[in-house]
Structure formats: C-alpha cells, structure tokens
Specification:
Blueprint: E1 7-14, H1 19-30, E2 35-41, E3 46-51, H2 57-65, E4 70-73, H3 78-117, H4 127-141, H5 143-154, H6 160-181, H7 183-187, H8 195-219, H9 221-227, E5 233-238, E6 241-246, E7 255-258, E8 267-272, E9 275-278, H10 280-283, E10 289-291, E11 296-297, E12 302-303, E13 308-314, H11 320-333, H12 339-368, H13 371-384, H14 387-407, E14 410-412, H15 415-421, E15 426-430, E16 436-447, H16 452-463, H17 469-480, E17 490-494, E18 498-503, E19 506-511, H18 514-518, H19 525-536, E20 540-548, E21 551-564, H20 568-577, E22 581-585, H21 590-600, E23 604-606, H22 614-622, E24 628-632, H23 638-643, E25 646-649, H24 655-660, E26 663-665, H25 671-706, H26 712-731
Parallel strand pairs: 15-22, 15-24, 22-23, 24-25, 25-26
Antiparallel strand pairs: 1-3, 1-4, 2-3, 5-6, 5-7, 7-13, 8-11, 8-13, 9-10, 9-12, 14-26, 16-21, 17-18, 18-19, 19-20, 20-21
InterPro entries: ATPase_P-typ_cyto_dom_N, ATPase_P-typ_P_site, ATPase_P-typ_TM_dom_sf, ATPase_P-typ_transduc_dom_A_sf, ATPase_P-type_domA, HAD-like_sf, HAD_sf, Heavy-metal-associated_CS
GO molecular function, one term: copper ion binding
Protein name: P-type Cu(2+) transporter
Length: 754
C-alpha cells in the first residue's frame, strides 16, 4: 500500500465500552482500502488514522459510524478543541451522575427485602411494583447496553455490553416468565422471581461506568493543567491604543503587554522591560529565570514582578506550549508494543465468555437438574467477565505517566519510546552541551608580572566587543569583578595567533603559544608543567605578552575549560545506582575526555571520535542485545540518536537532534535524563501490574461464577470495580516526583581563579 502523499488525522470516538470495541474499530478501519495505519485508544476515546488519497475523510468517519459508534474529526484549532473537550467531559459526567442517582433510587425498593433478610425480617414487595421498577431499569437505563450489543452483532462482532445484555435479560426474562405463568405460586411463596438481580446488575454496571468516567477525567489532569496555562485574553497595542483581545485573535508581529503576575499569552521576544519568568510547568525549571530585552518568552509562562513588552513570534498551534500538548496527546494515542497481546486476547474474549456461560448452564443443569440455579450461574459468568479492565490497563498508565513526565519537562514522544526506556541498560552521552555547558570558563590565572587585577584590566580591554567564546569568558569574569575597560588606541587581529592591541602607548599581544615562539619566550619548568597538565585535561591556554622597548615580557597565563553541568555527577551516580552502565562519546583528545569522565565517574570513554563514528559505537554497544539510550544535543548527534534503541535530546538541542529522539527534554538539566528513565520504569511497572490484575481477575472470577460461588449481583459489583481498580492503580503515578534533589552549586565551584 502506497504511503505517498499520506495524511494523518485524529478522530474522537464515543460509544466504545471495552477492549473488544477498540479491536472492532481498528479491524474495520484497517480493512478499508486507502487506510494505511489505524490506532484506537479506549482511555482517550480517540483514533489516529494515516491514509492516502484513495479514501476520503467522510468515508473513514462513516466506517466508524456504521459500526454503531459516533465519530467526529478533531480539527486543528487546539484552543477550541480543548475547551470543547473539557465541556463535553463535564456534560458526560453530569449525565452519568444523574442517571446513576435515579437508577439507584428505583433499584433501592427492590433491594430492601434482600437486606432485611440478613436480619431475619421477611418482607415481600408487591410483585406488580417489582415488575414496573425492574422494567424501567431494564429497558430505560439498560437501553444503552441493548443498542450497543445490537450494533455489535449487526457488524458481526461482540463487546462487553453484549455480556451485560444477555446476563440481565436472562434474569429479567426468567422472572417475567414466572410472573406471567406462576404468579399464584409466587404470592404463596412456592416460586421465586429475580427482578432485583437484573436491576441491581444494571445499576452496578452504571455505577462502574460513572466511576470510570470520573477516573478517566483524572488521568488527563496533567494535560489539562498545561491547557489551563494559556490565558484567554491578551493586552495588545493596536491603532495607537492598548486593547484586550482574545488570545486566538493575536497575530504575528503584534506587540503584547504583559503586566506583573500575568500569564504570557504568546511566544515572543522582549522588546522593552525586564522581569523574572516562571517556566516551571513548561520546562520543569524550578526557579524563575531573569529575562530582559532580546530574550525569548513562551506562552503559558508566568511573568514575575516586571512589566514587559513582547513582540509576537508564534501564536495558537505554533506556540511551544501547543506543540508540547500535541506531542503528549500523540504519545497517549499510540499503543505500546505490549498492547498487541491484549488486542489478541480481547478479540476473542467475549465469544469465549459466552461459550463458557452456555456450557455452565448446560453442564450444571444436566448434572443437578436445577435449571433455575444453572441460569444464575451462567448469568454470573457473563456479568463478571470484564474486557474493560484489559482495554484500560495499558492506555491509562501511559496517559498518566506521559502527562506527569510532561509537567516535569520530559516529553515522551510515543508509547514505544516509554516501553523501550524502561529496559535501558546503557546510557551513552555526548560530552559538549550534554554533560558540560558547552561554553569555556576561565578556571585559572597565573600572573608573572604585575598583579592579577591590572592584567585583567588589559585583557578585558583587548577582548571588549569580541564574540569569540574565550573572549566572552574573559568579559564575564571581568564583569563579575567590576573591571572597567581601558581605552583602546589600536587593535588588530593576527590570523591563527591572537590579537595585537595598543593601550596607553604600550603594545600587548593576547593569544596562543605561537606568540611565545615568535617572541622567543621560554616558560619556566613549573609553569610549563602546569600548562602541560591542564592542556592534557582539555584546557585552552592564552598568553598576555607586553612589548617593553625591544623585549617581550610574559605578563600572565589564562586557562579556560568547559564546565561540567550542575547535577551531571548526581545524574551519573543515580543511573549507576539502578544498574545502568554509563558511556561518554567525545571528539576531544584522550586526556580531555578522560579528565571529564574521571570527574563524573563514567564507566567507559570513547575519545577522538568523529561525528560519523558515533552511530557505529552505538551499534557496537547494542551488539550484545543490550538496550542503549543515547543522549545528545547537536546535529552531529542525530545519527547516533536515531540508531540508539531510544534517543534523548537535551533542551538546547537542535531540531535535527529533537526529531531523531524518542524523548525530548525541555531544559538542560541532566537530572531529567535519570527522571525520564525513572518515570518510564514506574509507568511500565503500572502497565504490568494492571495487565496482571486484569487477567487474574477474569481467570479467577469466571471459574468461581461458574461454580456457583458468586451470585450475579456480587459478580456485577466485582465487574464494576475491576475497571476502576485498574484506573485507580494507574492514577497512583500522579504521586511520582523526581528522586534527585537539585544541587545549587557547581561540581567545580571549589576551583580558585587566583
């Protein structure tokens, strides 16, 4: 089937009740010519469909509608979608609550005689009243089960509603038969009716559905908290005046005013003012970030105490917040590989249960001769079987897990990435920008002539205005020490060596050791040893030389080195504590790479590696059937990220790196690497727990019901709580928090500059 010109759409599907429904919809969609891929999620009640030009949108929607479900295309306007979904969820919950309360009030009189019997009080409700109440429950409140079951049968499939319909109809039908033909025996106590059984079962199933709707609503709370970040209105400057308009009406180029304490409505750049911006719910960064003119701000961030003017760069679905929400929703819509087993089981689950129920009725009836009791055993079998729990076990865990990860700044792109991440045994790191900041920092100064501050004034003056990374490091250091630059009379770049400058009629040279060779300057042994030592550890060295008459004097030596990121050591130690091997892949020389690796206690180091060789190393690490994660941020990391079992891109990463990865981190804190694996493990454990209980529940419950050890009402109660218990277990993931405490001091902050 051709994937050329393939398109993808999201569809909202209502009316699905269990895993069998999901399997039914998927099969029907995949059978259509032109549908390339289809994935249906019970927890989100959505389908993702990839299709080509040989089928239309209307045909796809009609395919679902013809199965008895209601399909609706999800449009691109994310603001309207989220408002509409929230409104629909509230309406559904309100309707379910009202139906449940009325059903319980009608069922209660039927249940009272049973309760009184526990206290040896005999009371019989009028049989006509029993008939009326049970009929209302059976055919008004139970109508949804009949309609769903009928549609399933017409489309040659089966679902949970079919089991409920058959089971309750059997109890109601048997009672109706007794009422019509043996009413006198019932009045005399010589025959029994069981209207309360059918009514209680339906009410309990409604109760289970109500709990399920409530629990499902909570599984999306993380996404809803992200959605709520976007303010409804924005203050913009138009036509020479300030006016409030809907955020959806803001266009690129608009000047937006953001007052202290307000949420930022768009992605943009600050053109006036300065403030602190809280981006914690988007990036997971715990502390507010200082922002001033030229800095970028993100929609959904909270402005601090300053007033800022922002020019709009992105609105609506193009904002970072909207992209994050779409990414998380896409991840929740896709299925984990483990779900394939569930789909296979659910496709045959209902027919097998119906067969077991029929066999229970026949075998029990033939062996005991008590056909009335046999019917109730069969009803219990049909009612207790619950494919819902199977269908909800995986998607609910994924929804909560990916949602919680997103709140911490971890974007897990799909369910497969989450499943792979939990089994990672090796994490390979790129060095620069991943474990280190990627910017050189002045780590040491040796002054041979004059004092440190005097020399610092000269080098700051020479480097003023330069964009070179080493120059920026010098200027930052000078700023921290309140150094005021001297007036430069002349400055000239000398290719491959450094810079010449004339300051106060004195000539200075700042640059590499080539100046030492040119001016025949020889280092004393103690300084030469220090230069060799730090150079082998990856430090860059600059020399400040002054021309005095015809002599050249070495005034000072400056050492620069990339700085290890805050929390990098903590991350490595934490990964090793859970049995994960750490590897560093670097293009640096052996001495430099080994120095960083030793500082961080990394297990294995690959140095002098060219960009195209990184992917080869990842393949070598994978050769022993070991799951390998690769962490990187640059274009040159993209091939290795793609080859790894799971790629993790850092917050500062390029688009190529982010596209090639399965997990994207929204900030540059290395501890998110550990957190992403930790939340993946926790989520996968919940999936396994849920599937275990869903299978065990049916494996134990069905035989007990067939043996007559569970009456139909208890079976209905157990079935009602099975789905809720699975969702409740998944919701425990909402308590997940990062195990790693943020360290506020750099691992290298004990190094002295002077």
């Amino acid at each position: 089937m051709s994937y050329e010109n393939a398109k993808e759409m999201s569809i909202s599907i209502s009316g699905m009740s269990c895993a069998s429904c999901v399997n039914h919809v998927e099969k029907a969609l995949k059978a259509k010519s032109g549908v390339l891929e289809a994935s249906v999620n019970l927890a989100t009640e959505k389908a993702k469909v990839k299709y080509n030009n040989s089928i239309t949108l209307d045909e796809i929607l009609s395919t679902i509608d013809n199965l008895g479900y209601k399909a609706q295309l999800i449009e691109d306007n994310i603001d309207e979608i989220n408002v509409k979904k929230k409104y629909e969820k509230s309406n559904i919950l309100n309707n379910e609550t009202l139906k449940l309360v009325v059903a319980m009030l009608i069922t209660l009189p039927l249940l009272i005689p049973m309760v009184l019997m526990l206290f040896s009080i005999h009371y019989e409700l009028n049989i006509w009243l029993q008939l009326i109440l049970a009929t209302i429950i059976q055919f008004y409140f139970g109508k949804r089960f009949y309609i769903s079951a009928l549609k399933a049968l017409l489309s040659k499939s089966s679902n949970m509603d079919l089991l409920v319909s058959i089971g309750t109809s059997a109890a109601y039908g048997m009672s109706l038969y007794q009422f019509i033909f043996h009413s006198d025996l019932i009045i005399n106590g010589q025959a029994h009716i069981y209207f309360e059984s059918s009514a209680v079962i339906i009410t309990l199933v409604l109760f289970g559905k109500w709990l399920e709707v409530r629990a499902k609503k909570r599984t999306t709370s993380a996404l809803e908290s992200l959605n709520s970040l976007r303010p409804e209105k924005a203050l913009v400057y138009r036509n020479q005046q300030e006016i409030y308009i809907l955020t959806s009406e803001v266009i690129i180029g608009d000047i937006v005013y953001v007052k202290p304490g307000e949420k930022i409505p768009i992605d943009g750049k600050i053109i006036e003012g300065e403030s602190q911006v809280d981006e914690s719910l988007i990036t997971g960064e715990s502390l507010p970030i200082e922002k001033s003119i030229g800095d970028l701000v993100t929609a959904g961030s909270m402005n601090g105490s300053g007033f800022i003017k922002v020019t709009t760069l992105a609105v609506g679905k193009e904002t970072l917040l909207s992209k994050i929400i779409r990414l998380v929703e896409d991840a929740q819509a896709k299925k984990a590989p483990i779900q394939k087993l569930v789909d296979k089981v659910s496709s045959i689950f209902v027919p097998i249960v119906v067969i077991i129920g029929l066999l229970t009725f026949l075998i029990s009836g033939l062996l005991t001769g008590n056909w009335e009791d046999s019917i109730f055993k069969a009803i219990a079998v049909l009612v207790i079987a619950c494919p819902c729990a199977l269908g909800l076990a995986t998607p609910t865990s994924i929804m909560v897990g990916t949602g919680m990860a997103a709140k911490q700044g971890i974007l897990i792109k799909d369910a497969e990435s989450l499943e792979v991440a939990h089994s990672v045994k090796i994490v390979a790191f790129d060095k620069t920008g991943t474990l280190t900041i990627g910017k050189p920092k002045l780590i040491k100064v040796i002054s041979l002539h004059s004092d440190d501050i005097e020399n610092l004034k000269i080098v700051v003056s020479i480097q003023s205005g330069s964009e070179h990374p080493l120059a920026k490091s010098i200027l930052q250091f000078g700023k921290e020490h309140n150094v005021i630059p001297l007036k430069i009379e002349k400055i000239q770049s000398i290719h491959g060596k450094g810079v010449f400058a004339l300051i106060q009629n004195k000539e200075y040279y700042l640059g590499s050791n080539r100046f030492l060779n040119d001016f025949n300057i020889h280092l004393d042994s103690e300084y030469l040893l220090e230069v060799d030592k730090l150079s082998n550890e990856g430090a860059s060295v600059s020399y400040l030389i002054e021309k005095n008459n015809e002599n050249y004097i070495l005034r000072s030596i400056y050492f620069f080195r990339d700085t290890i990121k805050e929390n990098a050591k903590l991350t490595i130690d934490s990964l090793k504590s859970i049995g994960i091997k750490t590897v560093m892949i670097s293009g640096d020389n052996k001495g430099s790479a080994n120095f960083i690796a030793k500082q961080l206690n990394i297990d294995q180091v690959f140095s002098n590696i060219l960009p195209n060789e990184k992917a080869q190393i990842i393949n070598e690490l994978k050769s022993h059937n070991t799951k390998v994660a690769m962490v990187g941020d640059g274009i040159n990391d993209a091939p290795a990220l793609a080859v790894a079992d799971i790629g993790i891109s850092m917050g500062s990463g390029t688009d190529a790196a982010i596209q090639a990865s399965g997990i994207a981190l929204m900030n540059n804190d290395p501890k998110l690497i550990f957190d992403s694996i930790d939340i993946s493990r926790k989520t996968y454990n919940k999936i396994k727990q849920n599937l275990f209980w869903a299978f065990i529940y049916n494996i134990i419950g069905i035989p007990l019901a067939a043996a007559g050890l569970l009456n139909p009402m208890l079976a209905g109660l157990a079935m009602a709580f099975s789905s809720v218990s699975v969702i409740g277990n998944a919701l425990l993931l909402r308590t997940w928090k990062s195990k790693l405490k943020i360290q506020h001091k750099s691992l290298l902050n004990n190094e002295k500059y002077f």
